[in-house]
Write a structure and sequence with these properties.
The chain is α/β, with parallel strands linked by helices. It folds into two domains: 247 residues, TIM Barrel (Alpha-Beta Barrel); 85 residues, Orthogonal Bundle (Arc Repressor Mutant, subunit A), CATH 1.10.10. The chain is built from 16 helices and 17 strands. The structure holds S-adenosylmethionine (SAM) and iron/sulfur cluster (SF4). The site of S-adenosylmethionine (SAM) has 16 residues, from β4, β6 and β7.
């Protein structure tokens, strides 16, 4: 493990505030109650980076992602200050992809322009649906007309790429409504599209007061229809929920799915960092006030055991349609395909996993039952010895 090259490094910057909390959302986000402490938060992020140099291990940052929460609540000037400060504290890779998540209810086209001028190369727009009753049911702060305007603005602002997030399998949604959402989003020709099936997450308002979702058969029909619509329009489904035109895959998320390293800055942000001793996971203090005051900025730090590494590797890499190569598995976990024969065998026998040359990937059946397959891998890896990574 220690002889493998260090994985590529990404930077994640968490902006934890939103205008309102959506009832389905379990991301670390807080409804904004007062003016945002932009200046203090920017200083805290840069101070955090200053003190995280050891985690970089001399590597350049290949991608940057402003996620949330709602990063588009920050001004163009604040995003410019962060990027300028990052550039003074770390080397950036060539053509560094810089993504920023935006909520259609928080922007106007001048703000998009300012993000672009600050250095953002890719905008990710959380549209969710273009059907007003569905947006109301999801507790969104914008309506379909505002979402249409935001999509047009994103397309015209000069970003190298932009993504549209849609959710499907929504309360009372019909197949025709889900298909109409995808077609309306495709009308602005986004280079990238993310299609997420609505999940009822524990500890959300939807978990406490569940909406009526389409039946399992209906949800499967909706999934088939939206996947087909994106495929017919020329988008490659390269990951469970991600579709892209040629040359526009999301480099930041690809680094997660290939089990690369990331340094997460900001309240509640998570990191995965490799050094000669192994892989460490860290979480920043989730409370923004404590994070800004630097009261124990790193809330937890844990070295992963090798069996955890294997499971986490599979959790990520099996989401990719192309799966993973023997070399990637060895570099990230220290194991060869042959070392883990007993882990794969039951999945091969049931046609859930396939292997071509030096690559392993899920079959169409395995993709459909990915959660169940991963649960089996978790149970199997938990019986392995708990040696350090
Ligand atoms: C961290 S959110 C950020 C986007 C931005 N805050 C917004 O909502 O406009 C990223 C995306 O995850 C998806 N998402 C969030 N919660 C989900 C859930 N419970 N089920 C499925 N997708 C979800 C949404 O499509 C959302 O745009
Ligand atoms: S705006 Fe986005 S991050 Fe905020 S609560 Fe809604 S889905 Fe979650």
């Amino acid at each position: 493990m220690s002889k493998a090259p260090l994985p590529p490094l990404s930077l994640y910057i968490h902006i934890p505030w939103c205008v309102a909390k959506c009832p389905y959302c379990d991301f670390h986000s807080l409804a904004q109650r007062a003016p945002l402490p932009e200046g203090s938060y920017v200083r805290a992020l840069l101070d955090d980076l200053e003190h995280s140099q050891e985690g970089l291990q001399g590597r350049a940052i290949d991608t940057i992602f402003f996620g949330g929460g709602t990063p588009s609540l920050f001004s163009g000037a604040a995003i410019a200050d962060i990027l300028e400060g990052v550039g003074r504290r770390a080397a950036l890779g060539n053509d560094c992809e810089i993504t920023l998540e935006a909520n259609p209810g928080t922007i106007d086209s001048s703000r998009f322009q300012a993000f672009c001028e600050a250095g953002v190369t890719r905008l990710s727009l959380g549209v969710q649906s273009l059907h007003d009753p569905a947006l109301r049911r999801l507790g969104r702060i914008h309506d379909a007309r505002t979402a249409h305007e935001a999509m047009e603005a994103a397309a015209g602002a000069g970003f190298r790429s932009f993504n549209i997030d849609l959710m499907y399998g929504l309360p009372d949604q019909t197949t025709a409504e889900a298909e109409a959402d995808v077609r309306a989003a495709l009308a602005v020709d986004p280079p990238h599209l993310s299609l997420y099936e609505l999940t009822i997450e524990a500890h959300t308002a939807f978990a406490h007061d569940p909406p009526t979702l389409p039946s399992e058969d209906e949800r499967m029909a909706i999934e088939e229809t939206v996947t087909q619509a994106a495929g017919d329009a020329g988008y490659d489904r390269y990951e469970v929920s991600a579709y892209a035109r040629a040359g526009y895959r999301c480099a930041h998320n690809l680094n997660y799915w290939r089990f690369g390293d990331y340094l997460g800055l900001g309240a509640g942000a998570h990191s995965k960092l490799t050094d000669a001793q192994g892989v460490t996971r860290m979480a920043r203090n989730a409370d923004p006030a404590a994070y800004m005051a630097d009261r124990g900025r790193i809330a937890s730090r844990r070295r992963l055991a090798r069996r955890e590494l294997i499971f986490e590797f599979l959790l990520n890499a099996l989401r990719l349609t192309e799966g993973f190569s023997q070399d990637l598995l060895r570099d990230r976990t220290g194991y060869d395909f042959t070392d883990l024969e007993s882990l794969w065998a039951p999945a091969f026998a049931r046609d859930l996993l396939g292997r071509e040359g030096d690559r392993m990937h899920t079959t169409p059946l395995g993709r459909r039952f990915l959660d169940a397959l991963l649960a089996e891998f978790l149970a199997a890896t938990e019986t392995m010895p708990a040696e350090a990574s």
